């Protein structure tokens, strides 16, 4: 059992649906059920049944994200203002006296204390628990382990090192096994790390080491001198952020969607003779520099000599922004697949792709944040583009802002063709620059290859051999 407890710790990654705000971690700690807990001969006569049960019961501790709890050593140190040197020390001193905090056997280090290095910065304390996490974050190796082909792995390739270049916030929960004298002066310091929590603020996922467990698989408390006679288990409530999902589960869901889409794309149907078919896969990748929660509507207009049975209008999901290097970013990854038919021998005109960015506020009001347009030429290959958006606004700025604030504004563009040739339309409004949309697309063409048979005619008889 002891060997099992020594090797059952592993870290895990949870992908959050929203920014982390109200994480609540519950840690339950109790003495191990070993022979050392049995009372000595005669002691059971003095021990009540309630005391015996308390030995085997879990002590429950609840922690909020970045909540500071003090050990006896920290309580003594920061409780005396003469020991406070930095602003953080003074903040701890105020917290102890204003909120009447007491020393705890299970305490915390918060991000501002920089108690331990991040898991990829050092091969020191606790790093072995994170090796599985960073192996999972290496998407190419993960897909290779699943037996995926090179083309599928290329979909997940990135030039960024996810594990090393992101911004992190950390929190640590420890057990105080230090020795103190009768006056609570420190004799020997021994702090046992129980849980490490790392939040990636850029990509919004959380690392927990060791992972969430239950009473059937408790963890042993480790100290500098070995294993203590205590065991614990961990549970995390993500609160208002919604339930976190394991990174590997999300990857598997994404792989299933890609495999389904790949099967659909590989079922090519030969077009009729004299017809060329074009397959277009357009992805609305991301948007930036807008306001609020947004979604994007798209319209595809095709020339008269091109036919299509695909759905040419639609919208993305409603999305919240994440701050990336000081810039508000909305990531969509919304893919639009459609196909068009054209008679061979005719040079196809570009398709017209229109986008409208729309925001939704907490009152449910929908506002136009910007329009943009680009011509999609039917040229086989892979392309990408950053599209700048503009928003029509009434000439009277006060009326425009008032109408936009109270009722969400009004639709000033009745015909999207105005975005293509604005000089042909008489308008009583102006265009204001807003944000931008990043898109990329792939075009594949498909047609019959006509082979010309070679006919050989014999115009004269073959001469007989001379005898």
Automatic annotation (TrEMBL):
InterPro entries: C2_B9-type_dom (IPR010796). It holds the Pfam family B9-C2. It is found in: Cytoplasm, Cytoskeleton, Cilium basal body. GO terms for cellular component: MKS complex. The keyword Cytoplasm applies. The keyword Zinc does not apply. Transmembrane segments: none annotated. GO terms for biological process: cilium assembly. Keywords: Cell projection, Cilium biogenesis/degradation, Cytoplasm, Cytoskeleton. This is Meckel syndrome type 1 protein. The lineage of its organism: Eukaryota, Metazoa, Ecdysozoa, Arthropoda, Hexapoda.
